[in-house]
Amino acid sequence: MTESFPLLNQIIFNTGFLHLQINHVIMWIIAFTFIYLAIKKGFEPLLLLPIGFGILLVNLPLAPIMGITEGAEGPQRELIRWFYDFGIASEIIPCLIFMGVGALTDFGPLIANPKTLLLGAAAQFGVYIAFFGSIMFGFSLQEAASIGIIGGADGPTCIYLTSKLAPQLLGANALAAYSYMAMVPLIQPPIMRLLTTKAERKIRMKQMRPVSKTEKIVFPLIGTILICMIVPPAAPLIGMMFLGNLFRESGVVERLSHAAQNELLNIVTIFLGLAVGATMNADKFLKPQPIFIFFLGLAAFAFGTASGVLMAKGMNLFLKEKINPLIGSAGVSAVPMAARVSQVEGQKADKHNFLLMHAMGPNVAGVIGTAIAAGLFLTMLK
Amino acid sequence: MSMEVRSPMQGSILEILVKEGDKVAEDDELLILEAMKMENPIYAPSSGTIKEIKVKKKDTVDVDQILIVLE
Fold it and tell me: How many domains does chain A have?
């Protein structure tokens, strides 16, 4: 009987309850909030649900989830640590997601109206505003770049750049990026309305010209060569995206295109969400830094939206056929949410106005623009 | 005089909210076109009577395809 006391003692001492701290409980609340937002409000559920659960798992005291220990046979990793090290730290998952994005994306609107490339580029202005803002708040250059890229509203690019430049900020940055992407329909419209007149919002745009199959096949090929020659560090993201797009447009590898945009994308999304969530343990996350990151990310996003709209207004000074400035805000990536916001706002001003397809031009240009911005940061700071 | 309501973009018909012979006012919703996983209402460009509905539910339509003829 007395022999069993130490055993019982050991079992009790090794339960999580005795090691639970208030910080863990705060993180549980954050985890439940994200799970609630995903299930009840439909905010980016594909990501916020696994992220929320990842946060919960990593904040269960003593649970072997994210640890790494040096053993005689090299480093011993715990479950989600494998996903993180091989999926995110090694940049594989963001690039595979980009392959899926490429397979899902029709670049036709951009090819039909290449002017919209300028709107996608202008929206990256927010990235640089937040970059300089972050430096003023005392973040290092590398950290500032990874915070700035939140303004591009492109989750995989944000994770890709952060894991390379400032892995310690990965959880906060990814969460900020995906939260803002989910809140696109709330954040953008007031800025869009503030910067445009009702007459501008009513501008109807001419039907786009049809884009031939040859153009759609040549675009990813030329795009890959051109962008990767100018900004070589963007090659892993851009290369995978255009490969996915070539699968789609070639018409001869339907199965690969389908797999890239469905099974593969879904599988890596699970690993991505869990691994990102699991970077947020209480010790690292409950500091003032993530709050600043949320604030700076919002500023980046707002400036990106505004600069896209203002660029469209600027272009209208020179264009014979005016563009509706509401499509400028779609230059932040967030495909296709930002384009949908342009459509909704346009239709509020004029029920017979359809901007959706026109907004897809700057929207997909924004994806390319954010990947290029990330490549430029890597060239400068890595 | 008849007037054609054309599809503003490629998509599929999610719902048809009127039937032939119905009288509609300007800006009444005629049908819902789904594109980019977004439901886009198509409104009547002017008041009139629905003379012909050229599409049915779940049809895939192209840009500029005639959807409804109004009279």
Answer: 1
The tokens for A249 are 């447009």
Q: What is the ipTM of this complex?
A: 0.89
Q: Does any CB of chain B come closer than 8 Å to the CB of residue A207?
A: yes
10-residue stretch averages of pLDDT, chain A, 382 residues long:
79 90 95 94 86 96 91 88 92 94 92 94 93 93 95 90 92 86 89 96 91 97 96 95 97 96 94 92 86 88 95 95 96 89 95 94 94 94 88
Bridge partner list, B26? none
Task: Decide if A1 is inside a domain.
Answer: no
Residue A13 lies in a domain: no
Query: What domains are there in chain B, each with its CATH number?
Result: 3-70 (2.40.50.100)
Contact A59, A27 (CB under 8 A): yes
Chain A residue numbers touching B43 (CB-CB < 8 A)? 351-352
B8 shares contact with chain A (CB less than 8 Å):
yes
CB A128 within 8 A of CB A148: yes
Angle, alpha carbons A84-A87-A88 (nearest 5°): 65
> Which pTM was predicted?
0.88
